[in-house]
Design goal:
It is a single chain. By secondary structure, the chain is mostly beta strands. It is 1% helix and 50% strand. The strands form 16 sheets. Strands 3, 4, 6, 7, 10, 13, 14 and 16 form an eight-stranded antiparallel sheet that branches. The protein is elongated and about 100 Å long.
Length: 754
Amino acid sequence: MINIVFAFFIFNPDNFGNNKIQSYCDTVILQSFQSYYHCLSDSLFWDFESSNGGFIAHGFSPYPGGWVWDSFMPWTQPHSGHKAWFMTSDWFWGLYEDNCSWILESPVIVLNSAGACTLSFYHWYNIEWWFDGGNLKISTDYGATWAIIYPLEPDSYPCPSAHNGNFGIPNEPCFSGDSSNLGWHLAKFLLDNYAGKIVILRWHFGSDPADVRPGWYIDDVKITNATGITRDVGTSSILRPVINVIPNVILYPLASYQNYGIDNANFKAFFQIDSLNTTIYIDSINISLPPQAETILTFNPWRTGNNSGITYGVSAYVKFFGDQYPLNDTVKMFTQTSQQFWEVLLKPFPLPSSGHSLAAHSDTSFMVFGIHIPGQYLDTTLVYITSRETWHGGPKNPFGPGSYGTVNFVNGKFYRIGGTNDFPNPLNRVDIYDPVSNLWTSGSPAPVGLIDQTSGVYKDSLIYIFGNGNWGYPTSNEVFIYDTYHDIWLSANPFPGTGRGTCAGGIIDSFIIIAGGFKTGGVFCSDYIVGKISSTNPTLITWGQWQAIPGMDSGRCRIPYTIDNLNKELWLLGGKLANALETGEVWSYNPYTNIWTNWQMQKPNPVCNVGSVVVAKTCYGNRGIFIPSGYHTNTYVREHELLHLRNQGAEEQKSFEMYTKCAYLQCLPNPARKFLKVKYQTTNKQDIQIKVFDASGRFVKMIVNRKGEIPGEKIAYWNLCDENGKTIPAGVYFIHLETSDGNMLLRKKVIKLK
């Protein structure tokens, strides 16, 4: 086995109140069956020193425990070397558990057809006589069925039949009792009855409900006239489609195949898709692979169905003459068409990073700035081409690194502002990159050092900076404006209240939104505020009041965030919680309706410490939010994840009856006093509106107004205010779930209390 290990030890600025030593380890493991054992001429031998031999431990007991491969053995030393297999409970180290059935299985073994096949091993045991014990079993059908094998030396099992109350091997012959006076001693089994077969061996131990002992120890296993698997190819994984696919798009199926054998292999790889038990797509490719090689194959294109909710059975498999291990030949999965889902993209972020920010300069590409790998701030930038799903190295920043800052694409250029290259000391740099000329320039420095600030763009000319600081640098409520045309800084009205940093936020038309963040004193925030930029003087901002985000139970900071200008929404996608864990919750806010939506879609790998992320076109042609890398449970992860938002190219059935049948609407609490939680679902893409009317039929409030809203379950929170922001009086109200053309799908009556 070859282990290639890259390790870093770092001083970590990623966790509030705890700058601690961290390590990142990226290990590439290239291994074969042959790396598990020593090949002695025509024999196999496992001494369990450099590896566990590829043996697999499993089984059952009421409490944690089982077979363990380790060097720390409580009752005796290994027969040879420093490690062996033995049994122990997690509760009582060195003793097995009551009512257990613990199993240790060998890798797959090929016995010589000429015979003279012998299994031998050294063992030591101290087991309650008769009630508890262990024996050897063999399988010739890859573990589907098992048969007891009997020892040649000694000439029989010491116990002819275990007690019928034994949980694992009732009434079976077994090794039982105390052999400690013999020390480690040899056991032999003749396997000639299985000559020429492919087998797996099992050491099976069972106990009754009472009285436990040290158990069974195994070392130095040898099989004569045997080899490991030499001819084996298989399917490693299905890479595309994933568990969901966009309706009515063309995609190229991808799967990974591997030669696990020791010789070159020529075989045929297949990809098949079924719908309602009927094969609708099949393709195959003839390939040749050297030993231990793996390859990813791209098959001919397949078009998904027109509507959401279609389920397909997907399988990738191989056909190979003389394959000795067919259990790894086939991989199966199901995929379902959907407009709204998370996808872990095939190409991870090239550098595990924390503190980076993204900005898009087209619908099909974006750049990443401020990359911070464990222990090092980098001047590197990276470019992702969404249509090709590829990463490329971008231009190095000649002004140096700058992480935990902001980046915006304004007036044809990228503006990277503030950040740090020596946490927690802030920078005031403005680094400008022109992708057309490929030139970097420096803008006027910010009036103050900026770190963990938030930014937004107004009229493609002004960059607003609001919020600043973190647990290592004082927070601020100041608001600054960088004029990209005149290269000058202006001061604007500060937001009310104490300072905060590490917020989410942005600008939608003339609205400034700030959400979440960190306040001095260790406060993780779950509130938001909206400001309105004056149309005549951009330094004048009319701020509202801080309000709790309804339904958000925990404060959070360093939240990946972005603005969807098409649907006029701010998106929050994760973040760091006060308990030092990351959340995968997905929220959005529309300042025109003043409504928050919890999308009930957890990010597969929750992260924080990513600044602005981007909305861009995917390789399918729909729109999605891209989030590469980030910080998760003291680790810099590389996963690149995409939240699919909308399929602009799909033609979907828009039957009113279909929507009425599949939609639902729920309003809680009812009666309501402070806010109303509006939970709803549709199953097809549609323009959706949720309106409020009073008992007289007068329109009161538009809660949701989305074009082409993706199907699925959502939760919108209404603060019981009308269109003018005034609290509605007590009384009876009606919530309508409608399509944009006025068709009412559902209606709910709610009561507002005083």
